[in-house]
Amino acid sequence: xxxxxxxxxxRPRLLSLSLSFMLLYACGGGGSNxxxxxxxxxxxxxxxxYTYEPPVNISDGWTVGDAGSHGMSVQRLEDxxxxxxxxxxxxxxxxxxxxxxxxxxxxxxxxxLDDKDSWVDNGDLSMHAQFSASxxxxxxxxxxxxxxxxxxxxxxxxxxxFDYPNYDNWDxxxxxxxxxxxxxxxxxLQWDEWSLSYSDPNNPLISFYNQNHDYSKGxxxxxxxxxxxxxxxxxxxxxLSLGQAVQNRGPLTYADFLSTYLLDRLRITQIKWxxxxxxxxxxxxxxxxxxxxxxxxxxxxxxxxxxxxxxxVSSEWVAxxxxxxxxxxxxxxxxxxWQIDGYGYQWWIGHFExxxxxxxxxxxxxxxxxxxxxxxxxxxxxxxxxxxxEELPDQGNQVYNLIDRFILPTPQ
Length: 412
Hints:
By secondary structure, the chain is an alpha+beta fold. 26% of the residues lie in helices and 16% in strands.
């Protein structure tokens, strides 16, 4: 049965994050264990011949139901699990799906823990590192702080959130950086964590972690190389800094703010996270959650910020968050099933071309192919956790291909 132990109240304090962790956790984004997913159907993990059953009701806020009664094909879900069992999608660890506001699928298929679990002493196969999908949750907390009046709005000058007496590499343009620039990763600071692999010790992110204790100060000490708002540069430190900004404006610690205004309201009772050296929950990439809990964040955004009738974050914030504020202009490979169109407030905006239709969607993405995707036109929310940690060429499209082949409806 599901244990209601609140891991957030006994969270790990990793004040000295290991280099191996830093090499892997940011995204553009063991031994065997007998733990099982408390919410999955009886067929989960079967190599072949999977038989679908609806998720178990564990009184965690979800209404659970049969996929066939909520607009999905049970046969295709069974085909999906059989394909996973045959090894066609070797990176998949777990999948949870909500259709028409009901949790209709929740399966964990991984059989071994890995080194990422050891970073937070995780022994549950169903709890999974979310990596940079954590960034989207950081954005939700900024929206809640704005709703409560603790932050005036996204136009607030970012330096106003901090009381540092001075900054290195001073440039008057630093005064022009706003909260929105941070949310959309268009700060104008000199930064590039994508050109080199995270396993390369010369990656600027690795050097940054080795040289800085206060990440917000280190971020704002960086030199400028563009006007704020004009250049997109993926920046994990910027996402981490949002936590300090929220904490500095309110009476609660960031951890208590996260728990009180988001986790408790969504009835998320089991969670782990890593911490920054200054004690903040790492929402740049350090959350560990069940996939059925990750789906809640997507469902909340599907429902304009509401969860079970309660307004968690304003509908205005949701609408602003999922606009493509940063037009990336990338050329995605033609073989990729999901195309990225832009970046919102720590959410990725994209689309599928499926059966002659263009299906707009938005997603939280994390290193290793972690995903929470919302396809509003289909009333569909999908969470997938994966282990694509070796950055092999054939791994990048597996999750999107799985969604396109088995979860999206059959074209008419």
